[in-house]
Design a protein that fits this description.
mainly beta
């Protein structure tokens, strides 16, 4: 089994910054893609940013230039540095981790989510 735990959410004023962290643990053989998604009430979960094991990144247009995704492979951890935050960034942010278990089975695990609230 693979566990994913996020941290770092909170309340911040518009224009401010927050850094989210997400650590994966358990029966992990390798991790490929790691990413952040967000969801607001009544809406579908949407992609924020992803990063592959080789470091290739992908961002939603709405966060391009403001958010930076990075990872520490030695710690099975992914980060999301969020700058110039806007009220519309308010959402529950979820971490997603994809890879192989020690049994060489594919896994795709979600964290429990962390609330980010940006006040105007």
């Amino acid at each position: 089994q693979v566990q994913v735990v996020e941290s770092g959410g909170g309340l911040v004023q518009a224009g401010g910054s927050l850094r989210l962290s997400c650590a994966a643990s358990g029966s992990i053989f390798s991790i490929n893609r790691m990413g952040w998604y967000r969801q607001t009430p009544g809406n579908e979960r949407e992609l924020v940013a992803t990063i592959t094991g080789a470091g290739t990144t992908n961002y939603a247009d709405s966060v391009e230039g403001r958010f930076i995704i990075s990872r520490d492979n030695a710690k099975n951890t992914v980060y999301l540095q969020m700058n110039s935050l806007k009220p519309e960034d308010t959402a529950v942010y979820y971490c997603n981790v994809q890879g192989l278990t020690t049994m060489r089975a594919l896994f795709r695990s979600w964290g429990q989510g962390t609330q980010v609230t940006v006040s105007s």
